[in-house]
Amino acid sequence: MTLVNCKPLRLLKHVRGTRFPLPDFLIPAFHVTTSSTSRDFSSSIPRASRVGATPITLPPDVNLRLLDPPKRRGAVYRVEPPRTLEIEGPLGKASVQLPPFVSYAIDETTRKATLHILDRKSRDQREMWGTTRSYLASHVLGVSEGHTAILRLVGVGYRATIEPTAVTVKPEYPGQQFVSLKLGFNHPIEMGVPMWVKASTPVPTRILLEGIDKEVVNSFAASIRRWRVPEPYKGKGVFVNEETIKLKAKKIK
To answer: From CA 53, how far away is CA 190, in angstroms rounded?
Structure first.
């Protein structure tokens, strides 16, 4: 058995002992030459984030207080438990957990708070540095000015009211209010307002949520939006803040 126009040829031994000639392009190359120079995907210079080291401006009526973790008699901790930093302002109190390697300092003359970490070369500490700073800045803004979320009900017959009682939902705490929604279903939708969140309806098609915790306010707004997610053909649904949607062309049969 011979192959035509296959130069150069090599002989490989078959299992039964028969020799078959194979061309070079069918034999795997074990020695692959690679270029010594490598090209990066991006030509920009890598720069570290400076979020953690950015000072936080404290309003005059906002105070910070560090609380030590509770100590249990006879308990031995392998890892030092996190401490609690309490933020108090005119609208209420909030707290954020500080890892053991994060510390803070306040400049009383400029009213600015700065966070520091023990080892800037540690990746885990740098990650928690910026995260803790973002949480602290959000809580400082929440206890001083508050966080808001505006929901727009777009659709024929879509309405919202704030009721002191509900039929389908039981209250979770004394004095809880409920948001009653009419979103095209054959029954109204009743949802309890979380604690420390204030809900109001300036107009029947608008819902205003206010609170000191940004996460709680946005989470409750998302749970309301989930009942009528904006659809792209007629543009109906529940829109949160400046949310928009691009309309699609109608399907023509």
So the answer is: 44
